[in-house]
Amino acid sequence: YPSGNLAIIITQERDQHSLIVQEDELKTAKIRALFQSDGRSTCYYRNGDEWINMSIQGGQYLDQAGNRVRRWMWLNLSPEPHVPLSPIFISLNRHVGVRILAQDKIFVSFLAMGRQAKFNMGTKVQASTASQLSPPAQLGEDELLLLAFRVRILQLFDRMRGCLNFPSTEHWNKMQPPMYLVTQAVKILELCMAADISDELRNSIRAIVNA
User: Fold this and answer.
1) Could you tell me if 108 and 122 are in contact, meaning their C-beta atoms sit under 8 angstroms apart?
2) Does the model's pTM come out above 0.70?
C-alpha cells in the first residue's frame, strides 16, 4: 500500500499456490481475502465476517448480517439445474478490488499511485477431478481454539522480539508478522470453514488470529 503496509502475499506449497489480501493497517495484518488454486476462496468484511465463499462446486455471497444474498453453481460441475453466476464486483478497500466472472475468471486488482497489478486466481476444475479431491481435515472445537491461540501467542512473541530489537515506537508500527505465521493463520481459517462449528466460534477464532 502507499502507506508501506503489505497488501498482497502469494505463497506456493508444492503444486498449490495461494493469494492473501491483507488490510491496510499499521499494527495488525488482518486478512481480507484468501484465494487458492484448488478452487477454494473466501473474502471477508472489514469486521472479519464472511462476505464471499467459493469452492469447486460454486459459491455464495453474504450480507453483513450473515444472510445469504446470492448462491451459484459453476456450470461445468453442477449435476443439478444450473444456477448461473451474475458477475460480482466488490471493493475490499480503496486499493483492492475483486471481480468474479466465472470459475476460471476471478480477478484480484490492486491500484495505487496510478499503477495497477492484476491477478487471475480462477481455476477450471473438471467434474472428474473434483470427485477425486479428498475432503479437508475435520478438527474439533478445542483443537481449533488451541491452534488459534498458539498462532496468537507466536505473534505476540514475535512482536516482543521486534520491540526489544527496535525500541523506537516508529518501528513498532511498521513491523509485519513473519510469513510462516501469516500462512498458519490462513490454514486455521481454512480448517474453520471446513469444520462443523458454530458461526460464533468461527468468528471468535478469526478474531484471535487476526488480533
Assistant:
1) no
2) no
pLDDT above 60: residue 80: no
CB 48 within 8 A of CB 30: yes
Element (H, E) at 189: helix 179-194
Residue 115 to residue 95: CA distance in whole angstroms: 10
Residue with cell 479437508: 136
The residue type found at 158 is D
Cβ(31)–Cβ(210) under 8 Å? yes
Tell me which amino acid residue 30 is: K
| Residue labelled with grid coordinates 499494527 | 27
Single-letter residue type at 135? P
Q: Which of 1, 106, 99 is nearest to 56 (CA)?
A: 106
DSSP string, 12-48: EETTEEEEEEE-S-SS---EEEEEETTS-EEEE-TTS
Give the DSSP letter of residue 201. Answer: H
Pick from 103, 132, 139: nearest CA to 120: 103
pLDDT tens figures, 157-209: 777 777 776 666 565 556 666 777 777 788 788 787 777 788 888 888 888 88
Q: What is the pLDDT of residues 147-160, one digit of tens each?
A: 888 888 887 877 77
Residues facing 90 on adjacent strands: 98
Output the pLDDT for position 86.
82
Beta bridge partners of 87: none
